[in-house]
Design a protein that fits this description.
Elements: H1 2-13, H2 15-31, H3 44-47, E1 49-61, E2 66-77, E3 81-87, E4 92-99, E5 102-103, E6 105-109, E7 112-121, E8 124-134, E9 147-152, E10 158-163, E11 187-194, E12 198-200, E13 204-211, E14 214-221, E15 233-235, E16 237-245, E17 251-259, H4 266-284, E18 294-298, E19 303-304, E20 310-312, E21 319-321, E22 324-326, H5 328-335, H6 352-370, H7 372-382, H8 400-403, H9 407-423, H10 425-437, H11 449-460, H12 465-473, E23 478-486, E24 489-494, E25 501-507, E26 510-516, E27 521-524, E28 530-531, E29 539-543
Parallel strand pairs: 1-11, 17-18, 18-20, 23-29
Antiparallel strand pairs: 1-2, 2-8, 3-7, 4-5, 4-8, 6-7, 9-10, 11-14, 12-15, 13-14, 16-17, 19-20, 21-22, 23-24, 24-27, 25-26, 25-28
Length: 544
């Protein structure tokens, strides 16, 4: 303590030391800075906006790691407003703002861009243009920590990627950064890069124009799209193409933006992607973006689901399923074209719908290629990895950072496994496909856990609310109580759920499926009954 006191005294007496002291004091605050959040409670100013379209026109200065240009946001104001509010990281500097082609007053601080007027902006269609530039956030550990990645491929060519799932589109463009509002009419992107490099983006490539050694790639999607999917990648790419015929007979382009140095691996990789597409279409319906493309782009980071242009960085490392090459990363991210991109939650609280059902779909790939026993083995192993430290759904108005944890994958997928067992395949699989195909739950009709619960309850013919509550809103396991009540006689009951559930019960007579509830059922057996040996439930069994 005396040494520290002496240092503090010196810091106060000497200007140079005083500066060092200030830096030391500030440093912990920098290290402990909270992540910039995506989602959560919707701000009133943004609740008044309905985003229709984004136009993003940017030049990328790769040596300087900077961007410059503009974004136009077409929106509808539900009511007149003095303040139009966008999200945009403070690392970027806003130069000018126009509203309906007229210069507007603005402030930009704390990652919020306020566009203001003393006379209210009129209700209805509104066009805001923001001119800006600067140095975007650099990703330290993509894709888990967001930002731009400026690197080079093994041949020394520039290689640029963006990841934004945790932070949102405000990483590099002004937007309403909330999962509840996607641009109804899609996005136009005009990205300018040094001639010779290629830009991969969402939707369909409209044109490439080159002038003064700079090339501008114009990408366009007419579909709704989440903010974190509005990204681009830059590299020394070649495009390997083929045509895929969907389950509904539509011809869909497949385009793989692969590094030229890896181009020899592309055709086999697309063979695997086609196999994945056919299995997913079987369970979830036609590929969601049939009017655009199935897209894949090689990235320096591991990977991420980006609508019609999934990021792939698993370096062509294959395992085997059913004796055939398999890439788990490509399969999982491709599944998000249905779960996350087509079926999209309006609140990150319901994140499990993206990751849990998507992970369940991963297991269905194994089911198709290796059979039911291999499928069940996945869940028999995965149940031990479910942490149950916090609920899968932690309330309402949750930001992405808070909502994201391991159990939205493992427990979410296991929950679907449980639902399948309870409902039976003849009811479960058509209901799952309905969730992925019905217009009530897809594209611009965003969903919640309540929507999924109601859909499956209606299909089952009975309220499944208690099961949804147990699995998703608590950390409890299903408590099964086995009590010997007489010689070779046992009562089996469910202690903590108020709905009847089927159980596989193994007695001296073999295994049979019986419906148990809180009141209990009686079974006869000369041996101790064994419950759920194939592991369809996350459970705790008490014998008495």
């Amino acid at each position: 303590m005396q040494i520290l006191a002496g240092f503090l005294y010196s810091a106060l007496k000497h200007p140079g030391m005083r500066l060092l002291f200030i830096l030391i004091i500030l440093c912990p605050f920098v290290l402990l800075a909270q992540p910039v959040l995506y989602g959560g409670k919707l701000k009133p100013e943004q609740a008044n906006m309905d985003i229709q379209h984004y136009t993003i026109a940017l030049s990328v200065n790769i040596p300087d790691r900077s961007i410059s240009g503009y974004t136009e946001i077409s929106l509808i104001l539900k009511q007149p407003a003095n303040d139009i509010l966008f999200d945009l990281m403070d690392t970027l500097k806003v130069d000018k703002v126009w509203v309906n082609n007229k210069p507007a007053t603005f402030t930009h601080a704390e990652h919020l861009l306020h566009v203001t007027s003393t006379q209210p902006f009129a209700q209805g269609n509104t066009l805001v243009k923001v001119q800006y530039g600067g140095h975007p956030v650099i990703a330290k550990r993509p894709p888990w920590e967001d930002g731009f990645s400026f690197t080079t491929d093994s041949a020394g060519h520039p290689w640029v990627a963006i990841t934004a799932e945790g932070t949102g589109g405000k990483i590099y463009f002004p937007c309403k950064d909330h999962p509840s509002d996607e641009p109804d009419k899609g996005v136009d992107m005009m990205i300018t890069v040094p001639e010779g490099l290629v830009v991969a983006g969402p939707g369909m490539l409209q044109s490439v124009t080159t002038k003064k050694h700079l090339s501008t790639y114009f990408w366009k999607t007419n579909y709704t799209i989440s903010n974190y999917s509005i990204i681009f990648n830059i590299g020394d790419y070649t495009v390997v193409k083929r045509t895929y015929t969907s389950i509904d007979g539509n011809k869909i382009p497949i385009e793989f933006y692969v590094l030229k140095i890896d181009s020899a691996k592309a055709e086999h990789h697309l063979d695997l992607l086609e196999m994945e597409a056919r299995i997913k279409e079987k369970y979830f319906g036609e590929y969601p973006w049939a009017k655009e493309k199935i897209g894949l782009v090689e990235t320096s980071h591991l990977g991420m689901e980006h609508q019609t242009m999934n990021a792939y960085g698993n370096k062509f490392r294959y395992t085997k399923i059913g004796g055939k090459d398999f890439d788990w990363l490509m399969n999982h991210e491709f599944g998000h074209e249905w779960w996350g991109n087509k079926v999209t939650v309006k609140d990150w609280a319901d994140y499990w719908i993206h990751e849990g059902i998507g992970s369940f779909g991963d297991a269905l790939y194994t089911r198709d290629l290796e059979g039911e026993d291999a499928y069940e083995a996945i869940f028999q192993k995965s149940v031990a990895r479910i942490k149950n430290e916090k609920p899968v759904v932690m309330g309402k108005d949750i930001d992405e950072e808070t909502a994201y944890h391991d159990d939205i994958y493992s427990k979410g997928a296991f929950f679907m496994h449980t639902l399948r067992y309870i409902m039976g395949d003849a009811v479960f699989f058509p209901t799952l496909k309905k969730l992925a195909t019905d217009t009530m739950y897809t594209y611009n009709h965003l969903v919640s856990t309540d929507d999924v619960q109601q859909l499956f309850s209606n299909a089952y013919g009975s309220d499944m609310g208690p099961l949804f509550h147990l699995y998703l809103y608590t950390t409890d396991k299903l408590d099964i109580h086995v009590q010997q009540t007489a010689y070779n006689t046992y009562t089996i009951k469910l202690d903590n759920i108020d709905m009847p559930l089927p159980l596989d019960i193994t007695t001296s007579d073999g295994t049979s499926r019986k419906l148990a509830d809180k009141k209990g059922i009686v079974v006869k057996s000369t041996t101790l009954p064994v419950i759920d040996t194939r592991c369809f439930y996350i459970k705790r069994i008490v014998y008495e």
